[in-house]
């Protein structure tokens, strides 16, 4: 989900968490960015927010439930694939570990605390516990991203990483004893998409953006919507959340691996179709792709606040025009939350500068000493010549 540095879908040309881009001149940064990935991040975060707004409304509409099911099949996989793609350069060096802490761990602690307190006081829920081990609402993704990023060097050394990741996800789907700590079920069941991103190369994204794929994506999405409409009363939608084992959903254990593989295939096809429709040129919304972490983490307060106050209970919102109005309003709201003014206000939380918390990298110190020595030699040379 996000700003170039710490967004769930990372900034083009930079691995997730490398916030040094923000401090480079704007012209250099724009040259290094790929408009396709910024556009994809922006469109995906809009889908995430809109789908979240459908949750309290979809019970009255089979069509909306079908659309919700289709969107949930690919919006998070798309984020995760891009996150994995831009995580290929993570090597667990001190500098990158530090940026992982400031770009992912610190926002997690802040927003996990903020969301828990928000529910306790706005929803009048004094029993709401504050626990960093039990991610609330949106914050599970930050936990997952932190764990996936830390394991990146391991996946880069495995001979066949994607089959191994699929095996891990399948085992998780039949292991209810994993529990809810750190939302590990989601971490493990969504893992194959991250590992797939690590395995991809730029030409793979160019492959799905061909005209033939864009055309084929139309009937694919049409079939997906029709199937979802048929499946609404027949299928447990919780499968798309990947947060429970099969047994916890009342299914036999063998359904876990079967659904895991089936959903991975379906999500992969829909994600490829989504990417095929993402424009590759610079648009008015391209710059907003650098602020998707802000939109992701902040829009939850708007939706949860509306839900806690009962605003979604109004009858007219449960009619087609009301559902469209809510979708449009949320799309506008999350767009505004990705803008530079919002980024400037919340940057101290999303991208804190914490040099005081980390040791200086030995290689960096050596380079600085070398540069200082060169300057000193140049200064002495100038004095001698004078």
From TrEMBL:
<feature type="transmembrane region" description="Helical">
    <location>
        <begin position="66"/>
        <end position="85"/>
    </location>
</feature>
<feature type="transmembrane region" description="Helical">
    <location>
        <begin position="212"/>
        <end position="232"/>
    </location>
</feature>
<keyword id="KW-0472">Membrane</keyword>
<dbReference type="InterPro" id="IPR052734">
    <property type="entry name" value="Nod_factor_acetyltransferase"/>
</dbReference>
<feature type="transmembrane region" description="Helical">
    <location>
        <begin position="324"/>
        <end position="346"/>
    </location>
</feature>
<dbReference type="InterPro" id="IPR002656">
    <property type="entry name" value="Acyl_transf_3_dom"/>
</dbReference>
<feature type="transmembrane region" description="Helical">
    <location>
        <begin position="36"/>
        <end position="54"/>
    </location>
</feature>
<feature type="transmembrane region" description="Helical">
    <location>
        <begin position="97"/>
        <end position="117"/>
    </location>
</feature>
<feature type="transmembrane region" description="Helical">
    <location>
        <begin position="252"/>
        <end position="275"/>
    </location>
</feature>
<feature type="compositionally biased region" description="Basic and acidic residues">
    <location>
        <begin position="16"/>
        <end position="31"/>
    </location>
</feature>
<keyword id="KW-0812">Transmembrane</keyword>
<feature type="transmembrane region" description="Helical">
    <location>
        <begin position="137"/>
        <end position="155"/>
    </location>
</feature>
<feature type="transmembrane region" description="Helical">
    <location>
        <begin position="282"/>
        <end position="304"/>
    </location>
</feature>
<keyword id="KW-1133">Transmembrane helix</keyword>
<feature type="domain" description="Acyltransferase 3">
    <location>
        <begin position="35"/>
        <end position="338"/>
    </location>
</feature>
<protein>
    <submittedName>
        <fullName>Membrane protein</fullName>
    </submittedName>
</protein>
<dbReference type="GO" id="GO:0016747">
    <property type="term" value="F:acyltransferase activity, transferring groups other than amino-acyl groups"/>
</dbReference>
<dbReference type="Pfam" id="PF01757">
    <property type="entry name" value="Acyl_transf_3"/>
</dbReference>
<feature type="region of interest" description="Disordered">
    <location>
        <begin position="1"/>
        <end position="31"/>
    </location>
</feature>
């Amino acid at each position: 989900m996000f700003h170039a540095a710490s967004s769930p879908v990372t900034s083009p040309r930079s691995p997730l968490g490398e916030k040094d881009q923000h401090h480079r001149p704007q012209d250099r940064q724009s040259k290094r960015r790929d408009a396709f990935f910024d556009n994809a991040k922006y469109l995906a975060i809009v889908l995430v927010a809109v789908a979240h707004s459908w949750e309290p409304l979809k019970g009255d509409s089979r069509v909306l439930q079908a659309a919700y099911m289709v969107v949930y099949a690919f919006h998070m996989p798309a984020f995760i694939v891009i996150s994995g793609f831009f995580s290929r350069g993570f090597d667990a060096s001190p500098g990158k570990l530090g940026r992982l802490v400031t770009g992912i761990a610190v926002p997690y602690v802040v927003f996990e605390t903020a969301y828990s307190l928000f529910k306790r006081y706005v929803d009048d829920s004094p029993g709401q516990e504050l626990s960093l081990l039990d991610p609330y609402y949106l914050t599970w993704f930050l936990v997952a991203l932190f764990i996936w990023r830390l394991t990146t060097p391991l996946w880069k050394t495995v001979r066949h990483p994607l089959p191994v990741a699929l095996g891990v996800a399948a085992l998780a789907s039949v292991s209810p004893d994993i529990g809810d700590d750190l939302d590990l079920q989601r971490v493990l069941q969504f893992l194959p998409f991250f590992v797939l991103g690590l395995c991809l190369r730029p030409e793979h994204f160019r492959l799905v953006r061909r005209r033939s794929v864009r055309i084929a994506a139309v009937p694919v999405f049409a079939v997906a919507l029709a199937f979802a409409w048929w499946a609404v009363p027949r299928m447990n939608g919780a499968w798309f959340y990947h947060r429970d084992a099969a047994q916890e959903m009342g299914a036999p254990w063998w359904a876990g691996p079967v659904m895991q593989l089936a959903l991975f295939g379906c999500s992969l096809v829909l994600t490829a179709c989504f990417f095929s429709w993402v424009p590759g040129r610079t648009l008015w919304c391209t710059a907003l792709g650098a602020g998707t972490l802000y939109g992701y983490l902040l829009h939850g307060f708007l939706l949860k606040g509306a839900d806690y106050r009962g605003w979604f209970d109004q009858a007219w919102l449960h009619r087609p025009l009301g559902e469209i109005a809510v979708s449009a309003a949320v799309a506008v709201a999350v767009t505004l939350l990705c803008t530079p003014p919002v980024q400037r206000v919340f940057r101290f939380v999303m991208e804190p500068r914490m040099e005081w918390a980390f040791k200086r990298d030995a290689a960096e110190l050596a380079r600085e000493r070398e540069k200082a020595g060169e300057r000193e030699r140049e200064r002495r040379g100038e004095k001698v010549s004078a």
